[in-house]
Structures are given as C-alpha cells and as structure tokens.
Amino acid sequence: MKGLTGAYVPGGSPLHRLPAGVKLAGLAVCCTALLLLRPPAALAVAAVVVAALYAVSGVGVTAAWAQVRPVRWFALALFGVQLVVADLSGAVSSTLRVVLAIALAGLVTLTTRTADLMAFLERCLAPARFAGLDPYRLSLLLSLTLRSVPVVAELATRVREAQRARGVERSPRAFAVPLVVGALRHADALGEALAARGLDD
Amino acid sequence: MIRLTDVHVRLGQREVLRGVTATLTERRVGVVGANGSGKSTLARLLNGLVLPSSGGVTVFGLDTRRHAARIRRGVGFLFTDPDAQIVMPTVAEDVAFSLRRKGLPREETERRVRETLERYGLAEHADHPAHHLSGGQKQLLALCSVLVLEPEILVMDEPTTLLDLRHSRQVAGVLRSLPQQVVVVTHDLPLLEDFDRVLVVDQGRIVADADPATAIGHYRKMMA
Ligand SMILES: Nc1ncnc2c1ncn2[C@@H]1O[C@H](COP(=O)(O)OP(=O)(O)OP(=O)(O)O)[C@@H](O)[C@H]1O
Ligand SMILES: [Mg+2]
C-alpha cells in the first residue's frame, strides 16, 4: 500500500532525475524482459541488477522493504504452489519474477513525484480530449484515488477497532456497513472541498 | 464585506436557517451555538457552497447565487476534518494544487509553496505523504493550501475541534496574525476572547450579536 500512496523519497540520484515517462517506459520493458527470462541464473542476474538500481537510488533499505513487504505472503504462497505443481527451479523463478517486477514498480514510485507522474499522464491522455474528456480531470481522478487509499484504510482500521471494542469482531456486515457509509461521507466531503477550492471555476 | 438579508435555508424537510440578517464588516467574527443550530450551514452560505432558499447573501457586493466561482476565489474555507480537504497525496503537491489555475511558472509555484510551508512549520514535510502527518499538522496543511491563495476573507468551520492544546494554540496564533477578515465557527470559546464580534445561533436564528464577553455570557446562560 505504501508504494501506492506517494511514498516518494526525495533525492538527487540519476534515477530521481530521469523523466517520469522514461522510467515508466523502462519499467514496461523490464517487466516484459522478466516474463521472458527463463533460466534461474538469468533471473538471479536480474535480481542483482534490481538491487543495484535500488543502491543507486539511495532510498534506503526500509523504503525498499516497504515495497515488497505487502506481497510477502502472496510470494510465499506462490512459491509453495509452484513447488507442488512444478519443481524447485520453476518455483524460484516464478516467485522471483513477481517480486522483482513489484520491486521495480516500487522503485519508480519511490523516485518520482506524484505531480510528475500526473503531468506525464496528462500528456499521454491528451488525445482523450477528442473523445470529449478533460485530461486534467482524468489525472486529477488518479491523484484523488491515490489520496483516498490511506484515508479509507484508516477508516477501516477505526471501524475494526470500534467493532472490537463492542465485541462484534466477526460480523462482516458490522464491518462493511460503517465502512461504506464512511467512505461515501468522505466522498461527499471531498466533493465539497474541491468545490470550495475552486475546481469548477 | 458580507451581507445576509433575511436568509432562509431549507435542507430536505428541515428549515435549517430561519431568517438570518447580518452585515459582517469586522476583522474577527466568531459564531457559536448548540449542535445542529445551523452554524455550519451559515458558514457554507458565505462561499456559496449552500445557497439560500429565500433571502440573499452578498460577498464583495456580489450575490452568491450568480457569482459563486468569483466569490470562492476570494473566500478561503477551512473545514473541520482536514482529511476531507487534502486532495493530493503529498504535502507540497496539495499546496501547489491550489495554485494550479494561476498559470505561474513552475519555479514561482514552487517558491510560494515552500514559503507557505515554511511559515507554518511544515517545510521539512514537503515531500512526505499527507497521511504521515498528525491531525494537527494536517489541519495546518489544509490552512496552508487555503492561505497560499491569499484570500480576502477566511471562513473556518471548527478549525480546532480535532486539535490538541498546542496545535489549537498554534492555529489561534495564526488566526490572530492574519491580515484578512476571518469568520470562525467554533465550540472553543477561549479562541473568541479577543474577537471583534460574536454571533450566537440557536435553532436557525441569530439570538445574540455582540462583543465576545456579552455574547458568550448569553450563550452560557442559554445552555445552562
Ligand atoms: N443535507 C441535509 N439534509 C437535511 N438536514 C440537514 C442537512 N444538513 C444538515 N442538516 C440539518 O441541519 C441542522 C443544522 O446543521 P448544521 O450542520 O448547520 O449544524 P451545526 O450548528 O454546524 O452543528 P454542529 O455544532 O453539530 O456542527 C441539523 O439539524 C442537521 O441535521
Ligand atoms: Mg457544524
């Protein structure tokens, strides 16, 4: 989640200085390459390259770990399943492939400001203008989504705590209803705040 | 200058404001009243977020019904819950969002953002995700995003309700130092002590309108 929510780490590394578009294109190419790499040895080399990129970026170990941490159980499960249906080398390579792709995507968000990603996206979405869509609004939608992830996550934590305090821990309905109501209320307030900040002028 | 003329507001089945008339020219105006008395509705009228069902509201001599956009450019609004009004993922980006329509060169935008964040002690958090800030810091960020536009009037709906003593003092201090006209809805009575004028709202009407000591005295008696 942290990787999703603007965990930009300020810095002056070459990776920070690359334009957002170049990084995104690089990410796409690398992920394709990861899919095509078969031999585990090649993937091991890829892992070293990714680690080197992280070292160059200077974001630190904590930030790096935060990128892959959310998928650690998924990676473990994937490894287990692959071990059963394939063999050890197959399990190692498919797990490594997923983890490396996520680490690379995380590296892009760690070294790119959301504003730069948005500006790039806005340029890419420029053709949408012909379909009657406003590229600025589309990229704003993306920012609002990024901003809303931690807000709703926090809301979910508060609801869970409130349920626990009242001893209704296991009821999905007692969790979902206040969460949805809270999310809708947040959406309402956000709309009002955008109007107050002059979005519709 | 803000002028309300016999304003009624109906929301759903309820008549939330029932004949409010007032002319606000003082630099510091406070609004107090019981829960549900209509204070937030009154505040929202001032920048056209709520429109009167009858009567009229003019700000800078313009009617909120017809000039809401122009009025919002001159009236900054601070909500109680900063999470709702921070719309960008990181601190500096949220302040920059306010400036986007100014058409300033990038360096100028960055300079103004930096200056504003510095003034309110958030400079070191410029590139942090907004959700890493404490509640009080989030409210300061929301304030920065409003003040960077240098509005002529600032309306605040319970700006200190979610803050601890230190942060609410900080906001109170900021409030005192602001050159513009400020209208503050609050339950934080000490905040209003040195205000120029305080309105007491009850069941959709202004029932007292005086200096802070007199108005708050009336409010206390009413709530007893
Ligand atoms: N959209 C709505 N539809 C119907 N009734 C509403 C709506 N919004 C507010 N109200 C009602 O209007 C009344 C006044 O609301 P308002 O938010 O202005 O009160 P307030 O004085 O700000 O209260 P508080 O101190 O609790 O913030 C309340 O009784 C509320 O239930
Ligand atoms: Mg209110």
TrEMBL record, chain A:
InterPro entries named in the record: ABC/ECF_trnsptr_transmembrane
Source organism per UniProt: Microbispora amethystogenes
Localization: Membrane
Keyword Transmembrane helix: yes
Record keywords, A-Z: Membrane, Transmembrane, Transmembrane helix
Pfam families in the cross-refs: CbiQ
Lineage: superkingdom: Bacteria
Stretches that traverse the bilayer: 20-37, 43-66, 73-92, 98-121
Name recorded for this polypeptide: Cobalt ABC transporter permease
Membrane topology, from the record: Multi-pass membrane protein
Main location: membrane
TrEMBL record, chain B:
CDD domains attached to this UniProt entry: ABC_cobalt_CbiO_domain1
InterPro entries: AAA+_ATPase, ABC_transporter-like_ATP-bd, ABC_transporter-like_CS, ABC_transpr_CbiO/EcfA_su, ECF_ABC_transporter_ATP-bd, P-loop_NTPase
Name of this chain's protein: ABC transporter ATP-binding protein
SUPFAM superfamilies, A to Z: P-loop containing nucleoside triphosphate hydrolases
Entry similarity comment: Belongs to the ABC transporter superfamily.
Keywords: ATP-binding, Nucleotide-binding, Transport
Organism: Microbispora amethystogenes
Single GO molecular function: ATP binding
Domain ABC transporter intervals: 2-224
Entries under SMART domains matching the protein: AAA
